[in-house]
Amino acid sequence: MVLDSLRGVCACMVVLLHFTTQGHISALPVVRNGFLFVDFFFVLSGFVIGSSYGQRLAEGYSIKHFMWLRLGRVYPLHFFVLMMFLGFEITFSLFMNDMADRKPFEGIYSPTILSYSLLLVQIFFGPDATPWNGPSWSIAAEVWTYLIFGFLLRYVFRFAIPICLAIIVVASIVLSQLTDRYIAVFHDGALLRCIFGFSFGIIGWRLADWVGRLRFGRWGDHVVELAVALGVVVFVWFAGAGPLSLAAPLMFFLAVLVFSREAGVVSRLLKCAPFILVGALSYSIYMIHGFLLYRFVNGLSLVERFTALDLVQSADGHNSVGGGALFGDMMSILFLAIVICASWFSYRFIELPGQRFVRRWPEKKSVSDSLRVVPGAP
Question: Could you say which of 9, 116, 231, 377 would form a disulfide bridge with 122 (CB–CB 3.0 to 4.6 Å)?
Fold first, then answer.
């Protein structure tokens, strides 16, 4: 529960990162460097997959069924958001062709790159960019990481920890040499970045029982949780996209281990209803905010056309919200609230039905297969 709440908080930080304004919220280094919170998702995914499927895969659980369940968790909403982007692009080409500084279905919005996104291979092909629904690059990286670790846990479970340690060493070296962005990669090196964090999560899973038995005294858990929470904020504040960013998976590894205990005052706070809500909605918050951001800025641009207000700023092909610091902060809070509200609907009507279908379909298929082999079955 607490780790889910943390995932929701991190998803909200990514939203604030992408919604740039002239306000104080956007100027905070912990927001400007919010791309690092994606690495929390990767570490937590490794921890959760290890806890939920690690032993089962080692004992013979079907990799095919494992991947079916994981795709069922992430793909329905991914597909839905891509269709929203496609619908807008079609509308753009038919009715708004002269209202933007680009042409529809060109560049990173080409049909070819759309097909890459649909197949979750956009991190391997196309430009070093985040096309269509930008945040989906991390979903593509996670799906392929699920497959890699599915085989690892299934066939070399005994050596999982040494392999993960080797991956951590190799990944940190390669990412330090690949680009000048270090861990802040989302195309070239994206899969390695995900595997890097996921490996920490797998190690965390193996250490969780031992960590859970530690005793820190009456006030120890409160102090440890506060120290780790503050440490993460300070780390993200100063790390940026420099060499220090390569330590992000390690910082989040410590956070996952500490908060998996759910024993301190910060955990109590994260068990409050608002945090539980954003935790449940975290995947939707992360996946739909890009589309909503573009449409929100489109709306401000439309208002700007009919007023004397300066609501949208453009620099280097990127639009941000103008109107001054106070207006920017108000818009940041408003936009985050809009995303959370919209996420409730996508969670309720896209995510949950998709998960239910995926869980039922193998059962229905097995029943229908058994009926076909029984002579005279009705």
Answer: 116
* Helix axes 248-259 and 190-212, enclosed angle (nearest 10): 30
Rounded (10°) CA dihedral 224, 280, 61, 252: -30
Q: In this predicted model, what pLDDT tens digit does every residue of 81-117 receive, in sequence order? A: 999 999 999 998 888 776 667 788 888 899 999 999 9
Residue 134 lies in a domain: yes
Query: In this structure, is residue 289 part of a structural domain?
Result: yes
- In angstroms, rounded to a whole number, what is the distance separating the alpha carbons of residues 227 and 143? 33
Q: Which residue has the tokens 């858990």?
A: 221
**Is residue 375 a part of any domain in this protein?**
no
Give all strands (DSSP E) within the chain, no chain letters: 312-315, 318-321
Q: Give me the pLDDT at residue 365, please.
A: 55
Q: Please name the residues in contact with 235: beta carbons below 8 A apart, sequence gap of 6 or more.
A: 244, 247, 248, 251
Domain membership of residue 370 (yes or no) is: no
135 SS3 class: coil
- Please give the average pLDDT of every successive group of 10 residues along the chain, which has 378 residues: 96 97 95 97 97 95 94 96 96 78 86 96 93 96 98 96 97 93 94 98 95 87 96 96 96 97 95 97 98 93 83 79 91 97 97 90 52 38
Count of domains forming the chain: 1
Distance CA 101, CA 318 (A): 11
The one-letter amino acid code at 150 reads G
**Domain containing 69: what range?**
2-360
Residue 206 CA to residue 145 CA, distance in Å, equals: 18
